[in-house]
From TrEMBL:
Record's protein name: Pentapeptide repeat-containing protein
Domain of life: Bacteria
TM segment ranges: none
Pfam family, one: Pentapeptide_4
SUPFAM superfamilies (UniProt xref): Pentapeptide repeat-like
Organism name: Streptomyces calvus
Length: 254
């Protein structure tokens, strides 16, 4: 079942330079910082206010489908093809997304909560004003995607592929990210708040106003040389020092 929209919006492998681990615990508690701060502009969070939704009763997703004001509750969308579809003012709650094809989809003013799946294909998708909460995802493909005013809160996402993506005003909060790949991506006003970031890859990425200070733990697998547009804490700097020295060709002895 599809509904016409009320409005529309125009829409590898990298060399490793070392593994750096940083903890974000000071004075016996987790670091919690205000949004932004001196020298860094804070991300603008989405404000998703959904209208009264109709229950989705369709048999499945359709390529280039138009979904407006619908609630997908506990739906098994595994293996379905919604490539190029538009989701406006929609909620996905507890849905299965194993192998679901949503490449080039547009997800606008929507909320995804408790979704789960492996190998979800969102390559070159557009996410604007979206909240993703308590997701359990693995191998999600978001390479070449555009994310603007997106909040990822809670849950765990393994092997998130954001290579070549563009992220602006994106917040990762209270979640676990295992080996996320931002290789060649552009990040502007992106925050990591009270989340564990394990084996992150920044090779070839461009960072601007990226705030890593609030990460509860931070492990950088590659691309430490791309952090010039990021802000880190003093503790994180100390952890990064050996790798930074190696990048600059500085010998540390004694």
């Amino acid at each position: 079942m599809t509904r016409c929209g009320r409005r529309d919006v125009t829409c590898g492998v990298f060399p490793r330079v070392g593994r750096v681990v940083s903890g974000g615990v000071q004075h016996g508690g987790m670091v919690r910082r205000a949004v932004g701060g001196p020298g860094v502009r804070g991300a603008r969070r989405p404000e998703v206010r959904l209208p009264v939704l109709e229950r989705f009763e369709g048999g499945g997703l359709e390529p280039d489908g138009d979904y407006d004001g619908l609630e997908f509750r506990e739906a098994d969308l595994s293996g379905q093809d919604g490539g190029g579809a538009r989701f406006m003012d929609c909620a996905l709650r507890g849905c299965a997304l194993d192998g679901t094809r949503l490449s080039r989809a547009r997800v606008l003013d929507s909320s995804w909560a408790g979704v789960r799946g492996v190998g979800t294909d969102l390559a070159e998708a557009t996410w604007r004003d979206v909240e993703l909460t308590d997701a359990r995802l693995g191998g999600t493909q978001l390479h070449g995607a555009v994310l603007e005013r997106v909040l990822v809160r809670g849950g765990k996402i393994d092997f998130l592929n954001l290579r070549g993506a563009r992220l602006k005003d994106v917040v990762f909060e209270g979640c676990v990210l295992v080996e996320p790949d931002f290789g060649g991506a552009r990040l502007e006003r992106v925050e990591f708040v009270d989340c564990a970031v394990k084996g992150v890859e920044f090779s070839g990425a461009v960072l601007k106003d990226v705030d890593l200070r609030g990460a509860a733990s931070l492990e950088i697998a590659g691309g430490v040389d791309r952090l010039s547009g990021a802000v880190i804490s003093t503790a994180q700097l100390l952890d990064l020092a050996p790798v930074l020295a190696g990048e600059l060709g500085i010998r540390v002895e004694g």
